[in-house]
Specification:
Oligomer: single chain
Number of helices: 9
Structural class: mainly beta
Length: 836
């Protein structure tokens, strides 16, 4: 051909231009600015065996769960044409995803019901399993309005409403008169409306988990309840069997009869759904004699592909007239554990001859594959294995992304470096109940791969960024980069009940303008971690990290596990506190105090009582010293603190001039009154023995120490501190004897703000305050361990209560658990500040 050379050249040019454009599209510019980490993309690919080995047989079939991963407590409604479904989100933001379908099989998320901070009250301070419980969505045809009612654990029950579920919803309308959890609307055919909910008993609960279902009428025009409430269910189907946690109620009117459906047995393996029938919303409801209508609790544990924990259902009648149920259930691996949380399943509803709906009978199993006649499955569905990718090309986050408690819009940007998610580091850790720099999506498969490319630009060696696998504040795995200059460290840090553990680490050469790719591969039972510095050469950093550590079976709670992008700084809440090496080690060039024991008479106990005392180095009667009283934990005595090296910690400080010389008194704070026998451990009487110490301290111990040792008198020369139960007791003593103590230290304090057993030591919000005369001359320090699974939220509860009461104090979150790894540093920080 005459023009062949020209055509060949033209084709070559076109290919080169196309290739250049493709290369440009795949290689973005290097991000600039202050963010510590910029992420180029994030991918998630499901790879579960069941879906690979069991293809859907026809176009009318679908997989269960219809919403895999942590989509718990589903609720559904219809306007006769469209279907809308919502699920719980607990403490994640935005709250309550809303899905839309026209056929019950093909679902698409259209937004979140609670997508503004004004709708989510008191989220900071709540744990991951707090927040929003069991949203219930309903459509009222009488005013063509959609309602979503739910529980905010930190604020109470409320509802929002809208005329357009594709748009925005109202701000919350709270219902303080509706107690308990799990409220749900019922709109009757006559236009009247009702709220049913779980609540406690008016009188004494007969056993743990004894709850009721109540009903109260609702005035639609006034947006408030009206009239008295009525108890519809006491305990459950059969009170004699002591059913537990009756919850998640829904009411329906079908063929002239009223049905009340609820869950029993808790959300674990004993979960089930039960049904009652009545003649009116306020009338008597009788249980079906063949309850439960849905459960898997009695099936063999070794069955293949087990589905467990089934319950918390909601019913819907389609426009074609058939009935379906959505409900939550779990898919544990070999019936051992799962990381996916409670997922949303769907099944057809059958009807008994005596008019009751049910989903399973006898040994029927919930099917992993179901079908709906006449409904064709779309190419893009919410179930099965799928690929998901975000290149961060939009100016707003996709609906899959979640943050903790607040939008954290001040910590990330999609516009500062277009095409990247730019993330600032924050001193807030995911171990705290605040808003860390963490964006995540749900894990939806046992087996999956997830990867990202990151540019890491630390401001100092404290900055860390990477991929986080997150179950709750105490259980997470951080695949992180840390370091300065071109020498950085890639590491895997696991946090669990026992504390923080580095699973693997390796020094790498990573320049500021060089990207690193991180990849997590889940095999169901364990995770593998890879990194890539270029040329698609993946290096295995760690193999076989236990997935069980992040499971509900291990960690508890109500959520599943999420995975996402995280940036933080390794600091405490008080940047002034820096722990030096060897702070609690005895050194050859230091002088240490003398430990002695003494006895004193206790009028409270009616006997001699023992205590230890540490006199400062070179103690002399010619000099007077301030006194620190150190209080032990619930199972200890006057010797417990000696294991915590108080002599070494305080003497190291005083000898180097970092703290005042002081006398340290370590008493036994469990005081048995005269004529009483020592109480059993963890009983009300045992707790009361600790409360007796308040009287003994004032009446006997303080006078004895000040009479027999060279002591500076006055509250400004007295401090009291303790660990665990001793921390609670230090608050108890210090606040009640505020005229005697100017310094109070509570190291991982035991419960006290909330009711427990002993009345005398119970701290109400009013107790944790100070008279005006002592607000400016009292210092209180409270510490918490990041992995403390013993006292859990109590230190934070104390701190929040003091904040609410306007009491200035120091609150430190320290790495470690309920042990000396936190108590020793707590004493170090406390001793540096007192008597100054």
């Amino acid at each position: 051909m005459k023009n062949a050379p020209f055509l060949v050249k033209s084709l070559i040019c076109i290919c080169m231009i196309f290739a250049s454009g493709l290369l440009h599209a795949q290689t973005k510019y290097i991000p600039k600015g202050n963010p510590v980490a910029c992420f180029d993309y994030f991918t998630y690919t499901g790879n579960d065996d069941y879906y690979k080995e069991n293809a859907l047989p026809d176009e009318n079939s679908f997989y269960n769960p219809i919403l895999p991963g942590w989509y718990s407590d589903p609720s559904i409604c219809t306007n006769g044409k469209d279907y809308f479904l919502v699920t719980s989100t607990f403490i994640y933001y935005p709250g309550v995803p809303i899905f839309h379908s026209t056929d019950l099989v093909n679902w698409k998320q259209i937004g979140h019901v609670l997508d503004r901070p004004s709708q989510l009250k008191n989220f900071p301070g709540q744990g991951v399993s707090g927040g929003i419980f069991a949203p219930a969505i309903s459509y009222n045809p009488h005013n063509e309005t959609y309602y979503m009612i739910t529980t905010n654990v930190g604020a109470g029950n409320f509802f929002v409403k809208t005329k357009d579920p594709f748009g925005s919803w109202s701000d919350p309308i709270y219902l303080p008169e509706v107690g308990g959890i799990d409220p749900s609307f019922f709109f009757d055919e006559d236009g009247r409306a009702y709220i049913v909910n779980n609540d406690g008993m008016d009188g004494k609960e007969l056993y743990s988990g004894h709850r009721s279902i109540r009903v109260r009428e609702f005035d639609v025009k006034a947006d408030q309840t009206t009239g008295p409430w009525k108890m519809l269910v006491n305990g459950g189907v059969n009170l004699a069997e002591k059913p537990i946690w009756i919850e998640g109620p829904h009411m329906y009117k079908i063929n002239g009869k009223y049905y009340l459906m609820a869950a029993e047995g808790g959300t674990g393996p004993n979960h089930s759904e039960v049904i009652f029938m009545g003649d009116s919303p306020m009338g008597e409801f009788k249980p079906w004699n063949k309850n439960p209508i849905l459960t898997q609790k009695h099936l063999p544990r070794d069955r293949p592909n087990p589905i467990t924990c089934a319950g918390h259902a909601d019913l819907i009648q389609t426009k074609e007239g058939d009935w379906w149920a959505v409900f939550l259930a779990c898919r544990p691996i070999d019936n051992k554990f799962e990381n996916l949380g409670r997922e949303t399943f769907m099944m057809p509803v059958r009807w008994s001859e005596d008019g009751f709906p049910y989903m399973t009978r006898g040994d029927e199993v919930i099917p992993m594959i179901s079908r709906r006649e006449g409904v064709k499955r779309n190419e893009k569905v919410t179930f099965g294995n799928f690929d998901w990718r975000d290149d961060f090309d939009s100016a707003t986050l996709g609906m899959e992304w979640l943050t903790l408690r607040t939008p954290i819009s001040d910590l990330y940007s999609l516009t500062e470096n277009p095409g990247y998610l730019s993330l600032k580091s924050s001193p807030v850790s995911v171990s705290e109940k605040k808003a860390p720099a963490f964006l995540s999506r749900r894990m939806q498969h046992h087996k999956f791969e997830s990867a990202t490319r990151m540019y890491f630009k630390p401001t100092d060696e404290q900055d860390m960024a990477g991929v986080l696998l997150f179950k709750d504040e105490q259980h997470h795995i951080f695949f992180a980069i840390q370091g300065l200059g071109d020498k950085k460290e890639v590491k895997i840090e696991q946090n669990s009940k026992s504390g923080s553990n580095i699973l693997a680490k390796k020094q790498i050469s990573l320049f500021q303008d060089q990207a690193i790719e991180l990849k997590v591969v889940s095999h169901g039972m364990y995770y593998d971690f890879y990194y890539n510095l270029g040329n698609n050469e993946w290096t295995l950093l760690h193999e076989g990290a236990s997935a069980r550590e992040l499971s509900t079976a291990n960690a508890g709670g109500f959520t599943g596990t999420t995975i996402g992008l995280y940036a933080t700084r390794k600091t405490t809440e008080n940047p002034e506190t820096q722990l030096p090496a060897g702070f609690d080690i005895r050194k050859n060039d230091m002088a240490y105090g003398e430990v002695q024991s003494f006895s004193y008479y206790s009028k409270v106990a009616g006997t001699e009582r023992k205590a230890n005392i540490i006199l400062p180095p070179n103690y002399t009667n010619k000099k007077k010293y301030p006194v620190l009283y150190l209080l032990h934990g619930i199972g200890g005595n006057e010797n417990e603190w000696l294991d915590g090296k108080p002599n070494e910690i305080i003497s190291n400080l005083t000898t180097t001039g970092q703290a005042k010389e002081m006398i340290v008194v370590i008493p036994n704070i469990s005081v048995v009154k005269k004529g009483k026998t020592p109480a059993l451990y963890m009983t009300a009487e045992h707790f009361a023995q600790f409360d007796n110490f308040l009287d003994e301290m004032k009446t006997n111990l303080l006078p004895y120490v000040e009479k027999n040792y060279s002591v500076l008198k006055g509250r400004e020369n007295r401090a009291v501190a303790g660990l665990s139960m001793g921390g609670r007791s230090a608050l108890h003593v210090g606040i009640h004897l505020i005229k005697d103590f100017a310094y109070i230290g509570a190291f991982t304090p035991a419960p006290g703000v909330l009711p427990y057993f002993a009345g005398d030591g119970l701290f109400t919000a009013e107790t944790l305050t100070l008279p005006d005369a002592y607000r400016k001359n009292t210092w209180i320090m409270i510490t918490k361990g990041t992995t403390d699974n013993v006292v859990r939220d109590n230190p934070e509860n104390y701190s929040n209560t003091l904040k609410e009461n306007g009491v200035d104090h120091t609150y430190l979150v320290l790495p470690g658990g309920h042990w000396w790894d936190v108590w020793n540093p707590s004493l170090y920080y406390f001793a540096k500040k007192i008597f100054q």
